[in-house]
Amino acid sequence: MRVIRSSVVLSVLLLWSATAVARPSSTPPAAAAAAEAPAEPAAAAADIDDAAADADAAEMTDEELAAALDAEARELDASLHYQTGTIRLPCGKAELALPDGYRYLDPADTDRVLQSWGNPPDDTTEGMLVPAGASLVDDGGWAVVLGYLDDGHVDDSDAASIDYDALLVQMKRDAAADNEERARLGIATGELLGWAEPPHYDRATRKLYWAKEIQFEGNDATTLNYAVRVLGREGVLELNAVATTAQLADVRPAMAQMLAFSDFTDGNRYTDYVPGSDRSSGYGVAAVVAGGVVTAKAVGTKGFVAILIAAKKILLAIGLAIAGFFKAIWSRLRRLTGRRDAAAPSPPAGADGDDA
Q: CA-CA distances (angstroms) from residue 280 to 90, 205, 228, 314?
């Protein structure tokens, strides 16, 4: 079976299942009985959905199933509303002066895309950037998720003294500890391999970028987390690339361009900060990179106290959701294919449900 890009499989399966429910001719008696039984509404709906999906799976070949998933993915892609030009972000404090070659999706469309990637509903993003000509459906497509961290002013006085090698060791240790909880919850684990691009902070522009390489459980290819941060008066503009490490050659120059055309508006820039009047985050650049607790050893400044970001917004969580969902989808596809084979006396030759 052809592997369809994991970033669209969730919405595809949900839409496909809903379509199956709407077709009475393909709904078996068990589904009708479930609809009439005095069960909880959510449980009854789930029973109907599973019964209808199983019925359709029994009637589909691997090729037909792949085609149905791909068609739903294309429908999602075609329904997105791209914008170009100068974009004022929803936070009201930053804007993007998009050059030719880049498109913007608002938070509503971004939420649809993120849900299709296996993430829960989220109305807190600032939107998404997609290179022109790239598709969120195709394997070669990639995108940048935008966010605004409204934690207060970040003190960049630690930037010049950060030991990024020591910081990486700590981040790996934290990721390993997080994996224990993810494994307990049945969520795919991920190993932080190292820097794909070491952190760099430009004090003149108050802009920061770095990239991490992560190996997710069950995936042969490594995942690239390329991050850009723009420090502002009372918050941080976040740009997080969702791509594979093999796409680094394309992502790196694109992120450099995004670094240049993303900025805060007048009155909201880093230099507009008023000490004693404006809010302070209580942390520095090292914590922005690490996304969590930072030790004195990693920062290398005397008397530095370990600090914690109140809202831990690290793209690793998004990547893990994608990897975990991809694993779950393959399990369901195998289950559906297995049920189809059990229901069909003469399955098509070579349709064993495990082709990659």
A: 22, 19, 21, 20
pLDDT tens-place string over residues 70-104:
787 788 888 999 999 999 999 999 999 999 999 99
Q: Amino acid letter at 164?
A: Y
Which uninterrupted H or E stretch holds 167? helix 164-184
**Site of tokens 């939107």:** 127
Q: Are 70 and 4 in contact (CB under 8 A)?
A: yes
Which residue in 278, 306, 302 sits closest to 292, CA to CA?
Answer: 306
3-class DSSP state for residue 160? helix
Tokens of 314: 């690290």
Supply the mean pLDDT for the chain: 73
| SS3 track for 18-51 | HHHHCCHHHCCHHHHHHHHCCCCHHHHHHHHHHH
Residue 270 · residue 234 · CB < 8 Å: no
Judging by DSSP bridges, how do beta strands 153-155 and 143-149 pair with one another? Answer: unpaired
If residue 253 lies in a helix (H) or strand (E), which one and from where to where? Answer: helix 248-261
CA-wise closest residue to 214 among 179, 165, 257, 162: 179
Which is it for the CA torsion 219, 220, 224, 225, positive or negative?
positive
Sheet holding 190-202, edge to edge: 102-105, 127-131, 143-149, 236-244, 223-231, 207-216, 190-202
Residues pairing with 83 in the sheet: 104
Residue 258, both tokens: 């995004």
d(CA 2, CA 226): 28
User: Has this prediction a pTM greater than 0.70?
Assistant: no
252 by Cβ neighbours in 10 Å (0-12 / 13-18 / 19+) ranks as middle
Radius of gyration of the chain (CA): 23
Are the CB atoms for 171 and 314 separated by under 8 Å? no
Nearest Cα neighbor of 230 from 27, 93, 129 is 93
Task: Give the tens place of pLDDT for each residue, 157-168.
Answer: 999 999 999 999
pLDDT digit string (tens) for 234-263? Answer: 999 999 998 888 889 999 999 999 999 999
27 pLDDT band (50/70/90 cuts)? very low
Predicted pLDDT of residue 194? 95
